[in-house]
Design a protein that fits this description.
single chain
């Protein structure tokens, strides 16, 4: 069976050149931890708990505020839990906020963007990690250096360029650039590819496969965790993006969830804090569900991208 027919088995064989037949060593007993070690563990967990509370506090305030009355939200001292649970905020928010329309507009941007980011970053990452050509490390260094250039530096030139070619007022400026590679995702994919043994791609070349066939049939099936991490990162970025839609979208019928929520907040003023929190809670649900089901693959892709054989 060739490497192209079964890349997973070939990868396992490449990583395990021989089977260790030596008898296993006895498992040592766990040593009893000393008091300094216990104190250090308590201190670390205490810091993690405090940081978790700090980061989760805004989320908790938003979710509970969605079920509070306006009096409970503005009460002082602060009421952390609603005295009277109400669903009126959801009714009012859904009646005045075109959620389904904005949700569809956001998906129109998110789905193509995450596909384009994953494919382009994987192709470039493969080119600078597995294909031997002059100056590949220099080109990769230049790509990574572009990460230090803030978006605000290129914001105006990009807007002028997209305006001149007639892309303003469309979703194209928010989708097309992802198909040309994103430096951070290229770095992520390259690090993952470096963890794949060279013997695997060399075996495929001996079988007569070209680089494109090796990439599609051998490498891509092995990098599903990294691709999932890239797609999740890009989906979250497009889902929560505010500046991009604010720059390029000109009609209210094109608004995304983030942009529509901003104008909903501005139009209603301080009297609609409850409905604003209710709509924000609804918008957050798909992200939580997505991360809940994809967290194992996401974490695996991030951790394996730091492994280099």
């Amino acid at each position: 069976m060739t490497a192209i027919q079964n890349p997973t088995a070939a990868a396992a064989a490449a990583r395990e050149p021989g089977r260790n037949t030596a008898p296993s060593k006895p498992v040592p007993r766990h040593r009893r931890r000393t008091w300094p070690q216990i104190a250090e563990s308590i201190a670390k967990h205490s810091v993690l708990i405090v940081l978790s509370v700090v980061f989760l506090m805004p989320l908790f305030w938003m979710v509970t505020g969605a079920f509070k009355t306006q009096a409970d939200i503005g009460a002082f001292p602060v009421k952390w839990f609603p005295e009277t649970i109400t669903t009126g905020n959801f009714s009012y928010g859904l009646a005045t906020f075109p959620l389904l329309q904005y949700f569809w507009n956001t998906l129109v941007i998110c789905v193509p963007s995450m596909i384009g980011a994953a494919l382009s970053s994987a192709m470039v990452g493969y080119g600078v990690s597995k294909i031997r050509w002059p100056w590949r490390n220099g080109v990769f260094t230049i790509l990574i250096a572009t990460m230090m250039v803030p978006f605000y530096v290129t914001m105006v030139p990009l807007f002028v360029a997209y305006r001149d070619i007639g892309w303003t007022g469309t979703y194209l400026p928010l989708i097309v650039p992802t198909f040309f590679g994103i430096p951070f995702f290229i770095f992520l994919m390259r690090q993952f590819f470096l963890g794949i043994p060279e013997a695997l791609s060399d075996a495929a070349r001996i079988d007569g496969a070209g680089e494109l066939r090796i990439f599609i049939q051998v490498i891509l099936p092995l990098c599903k965790p990294a691709l999932a991490a890239v797609m999740l990162f890009q989906f979250l970025a497009s889902w929560s993006d505010l500046l991009g839609p604010l720059l390029y979208l000109t009609k209210s019928s094109q608004y995304t969830l983030s942009l529509g929520l901003t104008f909903f907040q501005g139009a209603q003023g301080d009297t609609a804090v409850g409905p604003l929190m209710a709509v924000s809670t609804i918008i957050l649900i798909p992200i939580v569900v997505l991360f809940f089901f994809a967290q194992k693959t996401f974490i695996q892709g991030i951790t394996m991208s730091g492994i280099k054989d």
